[in-house]
Amino acid sequence: MRVGGWVTRGRHARAAATLAALVTGAVPLVAVHSPGPAAAGAASAGVPVCQVRDNRLTEISGMVATDDGYVVVNDGADDEARLRIFFLDRRCAVARTVSYPSRPRDTEDLALGRDGTIWVADIGDNDRNRETIALWRLAPGADQPVLYRMRYPDNPHDAEALLLDAAGQPLIITKGGSGTVVVYSPATALKPGATTPLTSVGRVVLPSSTTSNPFSFLGRGVVTGAANAPDGRRVVLRTYADAFEYDVAGGDVVAALTGGTPRVTPLPDEPQGESITYSRDGRSLLTVSESADQPAGSHPTILRYPAPTATAAAPHPAESPTAAPPARSAAQAAGIGGGRAWPLAAGAGTLLALFAVAGVLWRRHTDRR
Fold first, then answer.
1. First to last CA, the chain
2. How many CB atoms lie within 10 A of CB 325?
3. In Å, how far are 52, 132, 241, 269, 334 from 290, measured between CA atoms?
4. What phi and psi values does residue 356 have, to the nearest 5 degrees?
5. DSSP 62-119
């Protein structure tokens, strides 16, 4: 998805509105997360594992690691050749692909079940106007995924992250924007050919961060991917800037996310990081960025980071694992007031920085017209 969903292909009005909001102050001039900065390890770049050189894979939005290599998907691609589930070998070369029986809308993440089932999260919604979202389930050995449709209980949401609970059922994590995201779970069993209602099962407040990334503070408050550890005892959420790892006790993933204290791994200056997974031994975090907006000749590169240790804990406000998110005012949605104190800070340096961010967003939008 383009730059956190604020700038999308062919969306002139949204790009203009974002620019205007930044300039006029409809969006806070400086967004300062609360509580204080997250305790984390040194912000060092990941170690390259391999480069994905297939020209169909320039917008990788989801990835899982397998015993043989990796599985990846693009986000909402216009080219039919890119709308596949891609299986890569350990050198990141495409070994095979699997087609969808019908056209997906916006595939944004992957999850790998303990039995080898691959779940594809067709949950992106830049314009927040989808009546339903979807999951594609590819069983081990199958050559065609099965479609399951779902509907939010309140209103459409943009989402890019998928986890599985202890029973192997999916959890959808919204992308957010102000550092607070919502977790949704199917209210009933998924059924092909039916639309399953979702229910809100809790909110997650991301720790504050100062990690450098291409989208400044905007990139620190959105969730762009998630993954379960192979042993089921940890899960991780990522933003454009950081990875937040939570311990899972008793298989309760929702309780871990909504009430746990995450460990932080900075992911500094990844070009547009939307994917994360664990290595098969669980000792490393693996990430990959989109390369569509990068200089000519750039290729997506899988990066390896050591999984965080228990000594690098970030402060985490207590959140109810079952409370649905309350309605928020426009100011709260922008990060002002409410449970997260995002105070305004004036100053010429801040204003200039925001003009620079807005310029980058606009230029990336117009360059892809």
1. 15
2. 15
3. 11, 26, 14, 13, 26
4. -65, -45
5. EEEE-SSEEEEEESS-SSGGG-EEEEEETTS-EEEEEE-SS--S-EEEEEE-TTS-EE
Cα–Cα distance measured from residue 71 to residue 89, given in angstroms and rounded to the nearest whole number: 9
The structure's pTM equals 0.78
What distance in Å separates the CA atoms of residue 300 and residue 290, rounded to the nearest whole number?
A: 6
Distance of CA 201 to the CA centre of its chain: 18
- C-alpha dihedral sign at 334, 340, 346, 349: negative
Q: How far is CA 222 from CA 94, 229, 352, in A?
A: 30, 21, 23
Short-list 117, 108, 141, 114, CA closest to 280: 114
Residue type, 94: V
| Whole-number Å distance between alpha carbons of 334 and 26 | 8
How far, in Å, CA of 70 to CA of 343, rounded?
42
Task: At 305, list the tokens.
Answer: 């980071």
Tokens of 36: 């204080």
How many residues comprise the chain?
369
Residue 18: how many CB atoms within 10 A of its CB? Answer: 23
Burial 271-282 (b: 16+ CB within 10 A, else e): bbbbbbbbbeeb
Q: CA 176, CA 54: separation in Å to the nearest integer? A: 31
E strand or H helix at 333: helix 330-333
Lowest-pLDDT range of 69-73, 77-81, 122-126, 179-183: 77-81
Nearest to 257 by CA among 193, 322, 305: 322
One-letter amino acid identity for 17? A
Position 150 pLDDT exceeds 70: yes
| Separation between Cα atoms, residue 224 and residue 201, nearest integer Å | 19
Angle of helix 348-367 relative to helix 12-24, nearest 10 degrees? 180
Q: Which residue has the tokens 């804990």?
A: 313
pLDDT of residue 25: 33
Least confident window among 73-77, 142-146, 262-266, 304-308: 73-77
Please state, in angstroms and rounded to a whole number, the distance separating the CA atoms of residues 338 and 296. Answer: 44
